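QA checklist item 7 of 12: single-chain prediction sanity check.
[x] sequence parsed
[x] length recorded as 71
[x] structure emitted
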Amino acid sequence: MAKKFPIRPSHPERLCWGCDHFCAAHDMRCGNGSDRTPHPAELFGEDWDQWGLQNDGEPATPATGESGPRS
């Protein structure tokens, strides 16, 4: 079973987030390249897990201006 992915880790720069091992940045077991994979919070900011969600936590629907599927 996969480990639960931490939403807001205290020190994301210390781990590689590329697989389920969550290895230390200086000792990657999986061989996932030569650089560690950054946590989404490092790339996109602290609110990365709220992107695309409405206020009630449901996925937002795209505003395309169309009123339904095309026939």
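[x] summary fact logged: The radius of gyration is 17 Å.
[ ] second reviewer sign-off
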